[in-house]
Design goal:
About 45% of the residues lie in helices and about 10% in strands. Helix 1 runs antiparallel to helix 4. The protein is α/β, with parallel strands linked by helices. A six-stranded mixed sheet has the order 1-3-2-4-6-5, sandwiched between helices. The longest helix has 21 residues. The chain binds iron/sulfur cluster. Iron/sulfur cluster binds next to helix 4. The site of iron/sulfur cluster has 14 residues, from helix 4.
Length: about 200
């Protein structure tokens, strides 16, 4: 039987050789994801940006650095969770990946979820949440709520860190303030998982 690492390596090599959608024309590197393959919590963004395309690593640019800080604010290290995106190649100009591109790439993300088998999936932003819910949705409406997904998993949507960079206010009820509440909930999920 293959180990989780071997299964993830197999997905990585298929992603690297994938030309199934037009995003393959623009990439420098594919960006599969990184983190603990046994993580109970998985963060899923929209797609790689310029820094991610350059390095082949997810969430390493300004938005990624903010995500790392948000995690660290409740003493979670990036290595304790798994971080990836809906699409594995950078959309030009950081545009939203089309529905067709998301569909073409979906089997890779679903494969990653099957390998990791997290209890909680955190879609970051409307695009990632829309992917899981199968329809266009507004993150503002759903963030901080628990949504059952495929029977035994829970979605817990949060704002995308790039949205927080554009909305830096910390006033009560602001996106940053709400994200602070949400990350504390993520901390409590992790604590609960450890107690089991
Ligand atoms: Fe393949 Fe996904 Fe890259 Fe499109 S975005 S080329 S489906 S790996």
């Amino acid at each position: 039987m293959l180990t989780k690492q071997e299964m993830m390596d197999a997905i990585k090599s298929r992603v690297e050789q994938c030309f199934s959608c037009p995003l393959s024309n623009f990439r420098t590197n594919t960006v599969l994801g990184e983190g603990d393959l046994d993580a109970p919590i998985m963060f899923v963004g929209e797609g790689p940006g310029a820094d991610e395309d350059k390095t082949g690593r997810p969430f390493v640019g300004r938005a990624g650095q903010l995500l790392t800080k948000i995690l660290e604010s409740v003493e979670i290290k990036r290595e304790q969770v798994y971080i990836c995106n809906v699409v594995k190649c950078r959309p030009p100009g950081n545009r939203v990946p089309s529905k067709e591109e998301q569909r073409a790439c979906a089997h890779f993300l679903l494969g990653q979820i099957a390998v990791i088998n997290p209890q909680i999936i955190v879609p970051l932003g409307s695009t990632a949440l829309g992917f899981f819910m199968g329809k266009s949705v507004s993150i503002g409406e759903y963030r901080g709520t628990e949504i059952k997904w495929k029977g035994n998993k829970t979605l817990f949507p949060m704002f995308h860190p790039s949205f927080l960079l554009r909305n830096p206010s910390r006033a009560k009820g602001s996106p940053k303030d709400l994200t602070w509440r949400d990350i504390k909930k993520i901390r409590s999920y992790l604590d609960e998982y450890k107690r089991r």
